[in-house]
User: Fold these one by one.
Assistant:
Number 1:
Amino acid sequence: MLNEDKIKLMTGISMFEKKEGKKIFPINRYFKEDYIGNHLVRGFLGYTFCWLLGVIILLLYKLEVLFGTEMFDQIFVVGIQFLSCYVIGLILYLILTFYVFQKKYSYASRGMKIYVAKLRRLEKRYEFQNKTKELAKGGRHHDRTSGI
Protein backbone atom coordinates (compact mmCIF):
# COMPACT_ATOMS: atom_id res chain seq x y z
CA MET A 1 0.00 0.00 0.00
CA LEU A 2 1.34 3.42 -0.96
CA ASN A 3 1.72 6.05 1.71
CA GLU A 4 1.25 9.52 0.23
CA ASP A 5 3.24 11.26 2.98
CA LYS A 6 6.26 9.02 2.44
CA ILE A 7 6.11 9.52 -1.31
CA LYS A 8 6.04 13.30 -0.88
CA LEU A 9 8.93 13.12 1.57
CA MET A 10 11.02 10.88 -0.70
CA THR A 11 10.30 13.14 -3.68
CA GLY A 12 11.36 16.18 -1.65
CA ILE A 13 14.59 14.43 -0.62
CA SER A 14 15.30 13.43 -4.20
CA MET A 15 14.72 16.96 -5.48
CA PHE A 16 16.95 18.36 -2.75
CA GLU A 17 19.71 15.90 -3.70
CA LYS A 18 19.41 16.80 -7.36
CA LYS A 19 19.33 20.55 -6.79
CA GLU A 20 21.81 20.99 -3.93
CA GLY A 21 23.77 17.73 -3.98
CA LYS A 22 26.64 18.96 -6.12
CA LYS A 23 27.15 21.91 -3.79
CA ILE A 24 26.87 20.28 -0.39
CA PHE A 25 28.01 16.67 -0.64
CA PRO A 26 31.68 17.26 -1.65
CA ILE A 27 32.10 19.85 1.12
CA ASN A 28 30.79 17.40 3.72
CA ARG A 29 34.01 15.38 3.47
CA TYR A 30 36.09 18.16 5.05
CA PHE A 31 36.32 19.95 8.34
CA LYS A 32 35.77 23.68 8.00
CA GLU A 33 39.42 24.61 8.60
CA ASP A 34 40.67 21.98 6.16
CA TYR A 35 38.26 23.07 3.44
CA ILE A 36 39.09 26.75 3.78
CA GLY A 37 42.84 26.07 4.18
CA ASN A 38 42.87 23.93 1.05
CA HIS A 39 41.32 26.73 -0.97
CA LEU A 40 43.64 29.32 0.57
CA VAL A 41 46.67 27.30 -0.55
CA ARG A 42 45.17 26.87 -4.01
CA GLY A 43 44.45 30.60 -4.14
CA PHE A 44 48.01 31.42 -3.08
CA LEU A 45 49.50 29.18 -5.75
CA GLY A 46 47.16 30.42 -8.46
CA TYR A 47 47.70 34.09 -7.61
CA THR A 48 51.49 33.67 -7.44
CA PHE A 49 51.59 31.81 -10.76
CA CYS A 50 49.48 34.45 -12.51
CA TRP A 51 51.52 37.27 -10.99
CA LEU A 52 54.81 35.70 -12.07
CA LEU A 53 53.45 35.07 -15.54
CA GLY A 54 52.38 38.71 -15.82
CA VAL A 55 55.77 39.97 -14.58
CA ILE A 56 57.64 37.73 -17.02
CA ILE A 57 55.51 38.96 -19.91
CA LEU A 58 56.06 42.57 -18.85
CA LEU A 59 59.82 42.02 -18.49
CA LEU A 60 60.03 40.44 -21.93
CA TYR A 61 58.07 43.33 -23.40
CA LYS A 62 60.29 45.96 -21.75
CA LEU A 63 63.57 44.01 -21.94
CA GLU A 64 65.25 46.29 -24.44
CA VAL A 65 64.35 49.41 -22.48
CA LEU A 66 65.49 47.90 -19.17
CA PHE A 67 68.91 46.83 -20.38
CA GLY A 68 69.38 49.75 -22.74
CA THR A 69 69.69 52.18 -19.89
CA GLU A 70 72.20 51.88 -17.11
CA MET A 71 69.91 52.83 -14.25
CA PHE A 72 70.03 49.71 -12.15
CA ASP A 73 69.00 51.67 -9.06
CA GLN A 74 65.69 52.46 -10.73
CA ILE A 75 65.26 48.80 -11.66
CA PHE A 76 65.75 47.90 -8.00
CA VAL A 77 63.14 50.48 -6.90
CA VAL A 78 60.65 49.21 -9.51
CA GLY A 79 61.30 45.64 -8.31
CA ILE A 80 60.53 46.66 -4.72
CA GLN A 81 57.31 48.35 -5.93
CA PHE A 82 56.29 45.22 -7.84
CA LEU A 83 56.97 43.09 -4.78
CA SER A 84 54.93 45.36 -2.51
CA CYS A 85 52.04 45.35 -5.01
CA TYR A 86 52.26 41.55 -5.11
CA VAL A 87 52.10 41.25 -1.31
CA ILE A 88 49.20 43.71 -0.96
CA GLY A 89 47.28 42.04 -3.79
CA LEU A 90 47.95 38.60 -2.34
CA ILE A 91 46.68 39.61 1.09
CA LEU A 92 43.50 41.09 -0.39
CA TYR A 93 42.97 38.03 -2.60
CA LEU A 94 43.43 35.61 0.30
CA ILE A 95 41.02 37.59 2.49
CA LEU A 96 38.45 37.45 -0.30
CA THR A 97 39.09 33.73 -0.80
CA PHE A 98 38.69 33.09 2.92
CA TYR A 99 35.39 34.97 3.04
CA VAL A 100 33.94 33.26 -0.06
CA PHE A 101 34.80 29.71 0.97
CA GLN A 102 33.71 30.28 4.56
CA LYS A 103 30.29 31.29 3.20
CA LYS A 104 30.23 28.26 0.90
CA TYR A 105 31.03 25.92 3.77
CA SER A 106 28.38 27.49 6.00
CA TYR A 107 25.79 27.18 3.24
CA ALA A 108 26.69 23.55 2.63
CA SER A 109 26.63 22.64 6.32
CA ARG A 110 23.16 24.19 6.70
CA GLY A 111 22.03 22.27 3.61
CA MET A 112 23.44 19.07 5.05
CA LYS A 113 21.51 19.60 8.29
CA ILE A 114 18.30 20.02 6.31
CA TYR A 115 19.06 16.88 4.30
CA VAL A 116 19.77 14.81 7.43
CA ALA A 117 16.58 16.11 9.07
CA LYS A 118 14.54 15.01 6.06
CA LEU A 119 16.17 11.58 6.11
CA ARG A 120 15.44 11.19 9.83
CA ARG A 121 11.82 12.14 9.28
CA LEU A 122 11.57 9.50 6.54
CA GLU A 123 13.23 6.94 8.80
CA LYS A 124 10.71 7.68 11.56
CA ARG A 125 7.88 7.14 9.09
CA TYR A 126 9.30 3.72 8.21
CA GLU A 127 9.78 2.83 11.88
CA PHE A 128 6.22 3.85 12.67
CA GLN A 129 4.90 1.79 9.76
CA ASN A 130 6.96 -1.26 10.80
CA LYS A 131 5.78 -0.99 14.41
CA THR A 132 2.19 -0.74 13.24
CA LYS A 133 2.59 -3.85 11.09
CA GLU A 134 4.24 -5.77 13.94
CA LEU A 135 1.47 -4.83 16.33
CA ALA A 136 -1.15 -5.82 13.78
CA LYS A 137 0.49 -9.19 13.16
CA GLY A 138 1.13 -9.80 16.84
CA GLY A 139 -2.45 -8.98 17.74
CA ARG A 140 -3.88 -11.52 15.30
CA HIS A 141 -1.67 -14.42 16.31
CA HIS A 142 -2.11 -13.95 20.03
CA ASP A 143 -5.78 -13.04 20.10
CA ARG A 144 -7.36 -15.50 22.54
CA THR A 145 -10.92 -14.39 21.97
CA SER A 146 -11.05 -15.16 18.28
CA GLY A 147 -9.04 -18.39 18.56
CA ILE A 148 -6.68 -17.56 15.76
Number 2:
Amino acid sequence: MQKLTKAEENLMQIIWEKEAVFLRDLMDALPDPKPSQSTVSTVIRILKDKGFIDFKAFGKSYQYYPIVSKDDYAKEYLHQFLDNYFGGSFRNLLSFFAKEENLDLHDIDALLKNLPDSDSPTES
Protein backbone atom coordinates (compact mmCIF):
# COMPACT_ATOMS: atom_id res chain seq x y z
CA MET A 1 0.00 0.00 0.00
CA GLN A 2 1.37 3.38 -0.98
CA LYS A 3 1.71 6.22 1.50
CA LEU A 4 -0.68 9.11 1.05
CA THR A 5 0.56 12.66 0.51
CA LYS A 6 -0.84 15.36 2.79
CA ALA A 7 -3.33 16.49 0.10
CA GLU A 8 -4.44 12.89 -0.53
CA GLU A 9 -4.79 12.21 3.18
CA ASN A 10 -6.89 15.36 3.67
CA LEU A 11 -9.37 14.16 1.05
CA MET A 12 -9.32 10.58 2.34
CA GLN A 13 -10.18 11.79 5.86
CA ILE A 14 -13.33 13.38 4.44
CA ILE A 15 -14.16 10.33 2.31
CA TRP A 16 -13.63 7.97 5.27
CA GLU A 17 -15.80 10.15 7.49
CA LYS A 18 -18.66 10.56 5.02
CA GLU A 19 -18.29 7.07 3.44
CA ALA A 20 -19.52 8.29 0.03
CA VAL A 21 -19.14 11.77 -1.46
CA PHE A 22 -19.59 13.75 -4.62
CA LEU A 23 -17.01 16.33 -5.67
CA ARG A 24 -19.35 19.05 -4.38
CA ASP A 25 -19.38 17.38 -0.92
CA LEU A 26 -15.58 17.31 -0.85
CA MET A 27 -15.35 20.95 -1.84
CA ASP A 28 -17.86 21.94 0.86
CA ALA A 29 -15.97 19.96 3.53
CA LEU A 30 -12.55 21.44 2.77
CA PRO A 31 -11.38 24.32 4.95
CA ASP A 32 -10.69 27.79 3.58
CA PRO A 33 -8.75 28.69 1.58
CA LYS A 34 -10.13 25.91 -0.61
CA PRO A 35 -8.05 24.45 -3.44
CA SER A 36 -9.49 24.73 -6.93
CA GLN A 37 -11.99 22.12 -8.07
CA SER A 38 -9.55 20.97 -10.76
CA THR A 39 -6.88 20.39 -8.09
CA VAL A 40 -9.30 18.31 -6.02
CA SER A 41 -10.31 16.36 -9.14
CA THR A 42 -6.65 15.63 -9.85
CA VAL A 43 -6.08 14.34 -6.32
CA ILE A 44 -9.22 12.20 -6.60
CA ARG A 45 -7.86 10.68 -9.81
CA ILE A 46 -4.57 9.91 -8.04
CA LEU A 47 -6.43 8.27 -5.14
CA LYS A 48 -8.33 6.12 -7.65
CA ASP A 49 -5.09 5.16 -9.41
CA LYS A 50 -3.48 4.27 -6.05
CA GLY A 51 -6.44 2.00 -5.25
CA PHE A 52 -7.79 3.95 -2.29
CA ILE A 53 -11.17 4.92 -3.75
CA ASP A 54 -13.60 3.92 -6.45
CA PHE A 55 -16.72 5.58 -7.79
CA LYS A 56 -20.26 5.09 -8.98
CA ALA A 57 -21.47 7.16 -11.93
CA PHE A 58 -24.76 9.04 -11.68
CA GLY A 59 -25.09 10.64 -15.09
CA LYS A 60 -22.23 13.13 -15.32
CA SER A 61 -21.64 13.08 -11.55
CA TYR A 62 -19.48 10.62 -9.67
CA GLN A 63 -19.89 9.43 -6.12
CA TYR A 64 -16.59 8.42 -4.55
CA TYR A 65 -16.23 5.85 -1.80
CA PRO A 66 -13.24 4.30 0.00
CA ILE A 67 -12.03 0.82 -0.88
CA VAL A 68 -9.21 0.98 1.68
CA SER A 69 -10.53 1.45 5.21
CA LYS A 70 -9.09 4.03 7.55
CA ASP A 71 -8.15 1.25 9.98
CA ASP A 72 -6.30 -0.73 7.30
CA TYR A 73 -4.37 2.36 6.20
CA ALA A 74 -3.58 3.31 9.81
CA LYS A 75 -2.27 -0.20 10.56
CA GLU A 76 -0.05 -0.20 7.46
CA TYR A 77 1.20 3.32 8.11
CA LEU A 78 1.92 2.56 11.77
CA HIS A 79 3.86 -0.59 10.85
CA GLN A 80 5.95 1.40 8.35
CA PHE A 81 6.48 4.15 10.92
CA LEU A 82 7.57 1.65 13.58
CA ASP A 83 9.92 -0.07 11.12
CA ASN A 84 11.45 3.16 9.83
CA TYR A 85 11.92 4.99 13.13
CA PHE A 86 11.81 2.45 15.97
CA GLY A 87 13.22 -0.78 14.54
CA GLY A 88 9.73 -2.27 14.36
CA SER A 89 9.45 -2.20 18.14
CA PHE A 90 6.41 -0.82 19.93
CA ARG A 91 8.54 -0.83 23.09
CA ASN A 92 11.02 1.56 21.47
CA LEU A 93 8.12 3.80 20.44
CA LEU A 94 6.68 3.67 23.95
CA SER A 95 10.08 4.47 25.44
CA PHE A 96 10.40 7.46 23.12
CA PHE A 97 6.99 8.82 24.15
CA ALA A 98 7.62 8.09 27.82
CA LYS A 99 10.71 10.32 27.62
CA GLU A 100 9.16 12.99 25.40
CA GLU A 101 5.76 13.20 27.08
CA ASN A 102 6.83 12.48 30.66
CA LEU A 103 4.44 9.55 31.02
CA ASP A 104 4.03 8.35 34.58
CA LEU A 105 4.29 4.72 35.67
CA HIS A 106 0.49 4.31 35.67
CA ASP A 107 0.30 5.38 31.99
CA ILE A 108 3.17 3.09 31.00
CA ASP A 109 1.72 0.14 32.94
CA ALA A 110 -1.65 0.60 31.22
CA LEU A 111 0.03 0.62 27.80
CA LEU A 112 2.18 -2.41 28.58
CA LYS A 113 -0.87 -4.43 29.64
CA ASN A 114 -2.22 -3.99 26.10
CA LEU A 115 0.89 -5.36 24.38
CA PRO A 116 0.76 -8.80 22.77
CA ASP A 117 2.26 -11.58 24.92
CA SER A 118 5.35 -11.86 22.73
CA ASP A 119 6.25 -8.23 23.44
CA SER A 120 5.08 -7.99 27.06
CA PRO A 121 7.55 -7.51 29.89
CA THR A 122 8.72 -10.49 31.86
CA GLU A 123 8.55 -10.37 35.62
CA SER A 124 11.74 -10.99 37.56
